[in-house]
Design brief:
The structure is a single chain. The chain has helices at about 1-15, 60, 85-100, 120-130, 145-150, 190-205, 210-220, 255-260, 265-280, 280-290, 305-315, 325-335, and strands at about 20, 25-30, 35-40, 45, 50-55, 70-75, 75-80, 80, 110-115, 135-140, 160-165, 170-175, 180-185, 210, 235-240, 250-255, 295, 315-320. A hairpin with a 3-residue loop joins strand 1 and strand 2. A 5-stranded mixed β-sheet has the order 3-2-1-9-10, with helices on both faces. It has a 5-stranded mixed β-sheet with strand order 13-12-11-17-18, sandwiched between helices. It has a 3-stranded antiparallel β-sheet with strand order 5-4-6. It is flat and about 60 Å long. Helix 5 (about 145-150) packs across helix 12 and helix 6 (about 190-205) packs across helix 7 (about 210-220). It has 12 helices and 18 strands. It is of the alpha+beta class. It folds into 3 domains: about 1-145 and about 325-335, ATPase, nucleotide binding domain (Nucleotidyltransferase, domain 5); about 160-190 and about 265-325, 2-Layer Sandwich (Nucleotidyltransferase, domain 5); about 190-260, Actin, Chain A, domain 4.
């Protein structure tokens, strides 16, 4: 087995292989020897008749909800997995072509982060999409493992490390030791559900229909998971379509309202953390109490989320230095540290 991984990583070192964080909200790509070279929204715009991509990433995101009948702009991933195979394949091909700047690079090897709770069918869909995008081999690594590596946790040591990776479609909670996941839990409640909760709140309480982009903006500007008592609660003017009159209208909302609107999905995340802690072996639990809990993913940027988790668990909680980049940095470290990190691939991953 060691010889296999030695040959595998030997081939990695000789080519510009890539690591991918194929996220529900954003796709990030790491090129061996270069670092992170792409960070774009996971969105693709497609010509309905020609079945060809017209735009990907940020350019396609600007088209969401604004396209004519002959163009469709969509997010091919939902809840951390591929929901539309053909559009995901198109998006990946365009991103890979972009990072290689049109150079005729033949069949790079790809490492992709995947949620720990996905099914075998979903794993196969990820691998097939990557293979169809021009990869010679595809290797899967569970996202919490990649995030822990990217966050700088000492996953190779015989000590317990706890990572909570709050992405766009899934929240991954895992306890790691000796380059592997001792136990993990994946819940399909994360940033998208927080955004949706805001949309539902605006509709129910203020009779105002707002789009996904507006709700995301509200979350970024006003969102918090825990009261910040030493600060005055900010407000924001929100424009949308009034449910009763059908006319455009604006309302002023407070940060406390948004925190209240997100309480239910945040409670699901907290429950997943607590369940994982309850199942953790005593020796590893003692390590976690000493070292604390590490937060990664875009959800880690929600104000007060670390305070909320620390309050509910009684364990110090820290935010990774680059929470948005942890998974893709982890795939990059796997590519470039072949001797130290040779057991982190998902056991069921395989290449064609």
């Amino acid at each position: 087995m060691a010889g296999f991984f030695g040959r595998l990583f030997g081939r990695f070192a000789l080519s510009k292989d890539i690591g991918i964080d194929l996220g529900t909200a954003n796709t990030l790509i790491y090129v061996s020897g270069k670092g992170i070279v792409l960070q774009e929204p996971s969105v693709v715009a497609i010509d309905r008749e020609e079945k060809i991509p017209l735009a990907v990433g940020l350019e396609a995101q600007k088209m969401l909800g604004r396209t004519p009948d002959n163009i469709i702009a969509l997010r091919p991933l939902r809840d951390g997995v591929i929901a539309d195979f053909e559009s995901a394949e198109m998006m990946l091909k365009e991103f890979i072509k972009r990072v290689h700047e049109g150079n005729p690079l033949v069949s790079p090897r790809i490492v992709i982060g995947i949620p720990s709770g996905i099914t075998g069918v979903e794993r196969r869909a990820v691998m097939e999409a990557a293979m169809s995008s021009g990869a010679s081999e595809v290797f899967l690594i569970e996202e919490p493992v990649a995030a822990a590596i990217g966050a700088g946790l000492p996953v190779a040591e015989p000590t317990g490390n706890m990572i909570v990776d709050i992405g766009g479609g899934t929240t991954e909670v895992a306890v790691l030791s000796l380059q592997g996941s001792v136990l993990s839990e994946s819940v399909r409640v994360a940033g998208d559900e927080l955004t949706d909760a805001i949309m539902q709140y605006m509709k129910k309480i203020h009779n105002l229909i707002v789009g996904e982009r507006t709700a995301e903006e509200i979350k970024i500007k006003l969102g918090s998971a825990y009261p910040i008592y030493n600060e005055e609660e900010p407000t924001m003017e929100v424009r949308g379509l009034h449910l009763l009159s059908g006319l455009p209208r604006s309302v002023t909302i407070k940060a406390g309202e948004i925190r209240e609107s997100m309480a239910e999905p945040l409670a699901v995340i907290i429950d997943a953390v607590q369940r994982t802690l309850e199942r953790t072996p005593p020796e590893l639990a003692a390590d976690i109490i000493d070292r604390g809990i590490m937060l990664a993913g875009g959800g880690a940027l929600l104000r007060g989320i670390d305070t909320l988790i620390a309050h509910e668990t009684g364990i110090a909680t820290h935010i990774a230095p680059e929470p948005l980049n942890c998974v893709v940095l982890g795939t990059g470290k796997v590519l470039e540290n072949k001797e130290q990190l040779n057991r982190v691939f998902s056991a069921r991953s395989r290449s064609n």
